[in-house]
Design a protein that fits this description.
By secondary structure, the protein is of the alpha+beta class. About 25% of the residues lie in helices and about 35% in strands. Strands 1-2-3-4-5-6-8-7 form an 8-stranded mixed β-sheet.
């Protein structure tokens, strides 16, 4: 299903970027090879996640909400992806989810991440999610800027939150409360 077409002229950092026509679509299982490759690129930066390797499809599929998985696509190629994971299996937290957004290295700054995150917010509200949260490594300034641009606010700073490759890393906790769901 094609959710929207986008022509983005500004990068996530607000400095301007390359215009790129792309669509935001529902992720399909057969997108996994491209999605995983983009995830591996993000892992390699050392700033995108505490993970050190991408999981197999079955594990990834089981840990993400089925109704909130998107890809940015141009000319048949996946350029980025966004998905939600539940923060808890307890019913009281059924409307709270963790955000993941990854963009292929070759198109970072072209607005794909912003299109994906905006569409993910809309999809989350259709799914009854009232709070989105993101835990972002302090050094990942592009992701912090992207989330701020999409209505997230900083709610906390987590010192020495995780150990990545033998080094303790700090993280910024951001959230976005829906103005439509849970009001």
């Amino acid at each position: 299903m094609n959710l929207r077409k986008a022509s983005v002229f500004d990068g996530a950092d607000g400095r301007g970027g390359v215009a790129m026509d792309h669509s935001i679509e529902t992720m399909r299982a057969d997108d996994w090879a491209e999605v995983r490759a983009i995830y591996v690129e993000g892992i390699a930066t050392g700033e995108a996640t505490f993970e050190t390797e991408a999981p197999a499809w079955e594990r990834w599929d089981g840990s993400h909400l089925a109704q909130c998985r998107l890809v940015g696509r141009a000319r048949g190629q996946v350029l980025g992806w966004a998905a939600l994971s539940p923060v808890s299996r307890r019913p009281v937290y059924s409307g709270v989810a963790e955000v993941s957004v990854y963009v292929a290295a070759s198109v970072r700054g072209a607005g794909i991440g912003k299109s994906l995150l905006r569409a993910l917010v809309e999809a989350s509200e259709r799914a009854g999610i009232w709070t989105l949260q993101a835990t972002i490594l302090r050094e990942n300034t592009a992701s912090l800027t992207l989330h701020r641009a999409c209505g997230f606010r900083e709610v906390g700073y987590r010192e020495r939150f995780g150990n990545l490759n033998g080094r303790w890393r700090d993280a910024v906790l951001m959230e976005r409360r829906s103005r439509v769901v849970g009001v």
